[in-house]
Design a protein that fits this description.
five-stranded parallel beta sheet, 14 helices, 475 residues, alpha/beta, globular
Amino acid sequence: MTTPPHRTPQTPRHLLGIGIGPFNLSLAALAHPLTGLDTAFYEQRPGFDWHPGLLIDGATLQVPFLADLVTLADPTNPWTFLNYLKTRDRLFPFYFAERFHIQRAEYDAYCRWVSSNLPTLHFSHQVDAVRWNHRTKTFEVDYTRLAHDGSAQALGRTHAHNIVLGVGTEPHIPENLQPLVATHGVPVIHAADYLRYRTTFLTARHITVVGAGQSGAEVFLDLLRHRPIGQEHIHWIARTEAFAPMEYSKLGLEHFTPDYTRYFHALAEPVRDRLVSAQWQLHKGIDSDTIAAIHDELYRRTLHGGWPDATLTPGVRLHTATRTTGPRIELHLEHIQQNIRTTLTTDAVVLATGYRERPLGRILAGLDPHLDRDNSGRPRIDDQFRMILHPTVTGSVYVQNAELHTHGVGTPDLGLAAWRSATILNTLTGKEPYPLPRRTAFTSFGLQEPQQNQHLDGIPAARQPTDLTPLIDQR
């Protein structure tokens, strides 16, 4: 049992998680066997919900099934994907299927299985504010308990020695297109809502997909497969100069190892910022199987002569979009290399324009005076995934998937979830419940290995966390 017995509502927890996506779910799963560690995780949604609008039939994860919530830190943990299959009597079918990359819908079902069995998860709990109480040396967390329809039911307050933020990302809609998306009756949606509106979009006379990442490719392929041959009427446009494959060579994948994360963290801030934008193809390209499937489908439609009515044009910037007379939409485009502007009239638009880190300002407003920020105003985060706070704050605020600027391209990658969660738990407990490998890549990314707990851009490394060992042992 994870939660210690005989606790009262006033008893501070060792760790309170805000948000329950895959990353905090990983942390909760790895914390569960640590008897005596008092944790709780709050999520405003009524249940676990992972990109429901993109669980397209046949779409697979871009990481192997071993990148589940726990395996890469503890393959004996009861919450592995393989154990999930065992509880469903599906081990042998999975064995014969010989699938290294599972479908997204199956990963979502696996996460739902874990979330339904962990007692430390509290859904329909919206965290409103976090403050540091200097008298009690704890974080005060105000929350609202929600009804299933999202209305407020009750207010509450809890306390914790440490916080972990895992609020995830949100769909990004370019500013110039936001008014059109907000207009009632105009069929312009973000890809995150694709399945919700899929039936309507399939009946549209002409459809435009914007964005050349994995989501855009999957939406384009699904639409293509379900439109009549010769009457596809689909445009796929993107700002990138090509519909480029994701870097998936074995040495290229070593950018998603703890070794590279440590190397990246030790770099100077301007170097890190340059690398993040330059390494887009490591995590924003299209996997080669999806590219092949798109080409196969296009080729299949030429077998009896003619070409499909599908236009794929990279290198195009979408400046604005307006509603024309009637229900149609006019897109104002510019081809970057040709320096040519034109318009495209369409009936429906899917914006596969990616995601951005969810703003933390509302939740962390009470901690703002204690936060140490970099030259761009972003929170500084140490090599143990803790925000660097004023020394008078003796608790720690850990972050998950909000440290791209300090930890690099592996930040949103599911393959590093278990390692990061284990790192947080090792640091939190002052023990090593999850021994982690010292080396994970054949590549040596620098001429000098980064040192643990080093200075960050001239700022001293964060103080060591309060030792929770006595607190845990007392339980």
